Amino acid sequence: MKGNKGEFITLKEKYPPSEPCSCDICLTYCIRPGWWSVEEAASAIEAGYANRMMLEISLELTFGVLSPAFKGCEGGIAFNIPNPVCNFLKNNLCELHGTDFMPLECRFCHHERIGLGKQCHLDIEKDWDSSRGQLLFREWGKLVGLWDKLRKIRDVW
Fold first, then answer.
1. Other C-beta atoms lying within 10 Å of the C-beta of residue 43
2. Exposure string over 54-74, b if 16+ CB within 10 A, otherwise e
3. Which residue has the higher pLDDT, 1 or 156?
4. What does the alpha-carbon distance between residue 98 and residue 101 come to, in Å, rounded to a whole number?
5. 3-state class of 126 per DSSP?
6. Which residue from 118, 93, 122 is spatially nearest to 1, judged by alpha carbons?
7. Higher pLDDT, 157 or 104
8. How far from the centroid of its chain's Cα atoms is residue 49's Cα?
9. pTM of the model as a whole
10. Pairing mode of beta strands 93-94, 64-68
11. DSSP 2
12. Three-class SS string for 33-64?
């Protein structure tokens, strides 16, 4: 990603962490999982979090994003479930908070950054809509056995 002067800046540099906050607005952000960058998701997989991720598929069905899973969607596909809650949120506290595995979108979004979360989300989407991002989600699907599960379902139908 290019900065104002044409120099390359990372998503992490463009979207610095916000101050910790547990107000109702920020807690609402925590309920719906934020997205990792491709690099962060790869690190989270290496750290053993693969089975706590889910695959979110773009509306156009053109690419996928790995994110912390809704409770009940771990190691699978994000489904439209009533009252989805991030599986890392326990007693209104994030298990990933303060670690290197907290998603970029979660670290950046804050009640004081009104309207800025949308651009962060779009930039992370672009990161995933790449050959590197798509390769990672395909490798993750193999690792957690998702592709085998989907083949079995297809064979039953």
1. 14
2. bbbeeeeeebbbbbbbbeebb
3. 156
4. 8
5. helix
6. 122
7. 104
8. 12
9. 0.86
10. unpaired
11. B
12. CCCCCHHHHHHHHHCCCHHHEEEEECCCCCCE
Within 8 A by CB and 6+ apart from 80, the residues are none
- Rounded to an integer, what distance in angstroms lies between the CA atom of residue 109 and that of residue 62? 26
Cα atoms in the Cβ-side hemisphere of radius 13 Å centred on 118? 2
- CA pair distance 101, 68, nearest whole angstrom: 10
Mention every residue, 6+ apart, whose C-beta is less than 8 A from residue 96.
Answer: 68, 88, 102, 103, 106
Are the C-beta atoms of residues 117 and 108 closer than 8 Å to each other?
A: yes
Helices (H), ranges, 8-116 = 11-14, 24-31, 38-46, 104-108
Phi, psi of 9 (to 5 degrees): -125, 145
Block residue for tokens 């009640």: 111
pLDDT, tens digit (0-9, with 9 covering 90-100), for 121-140 = 899 999 999 999 999 999 99
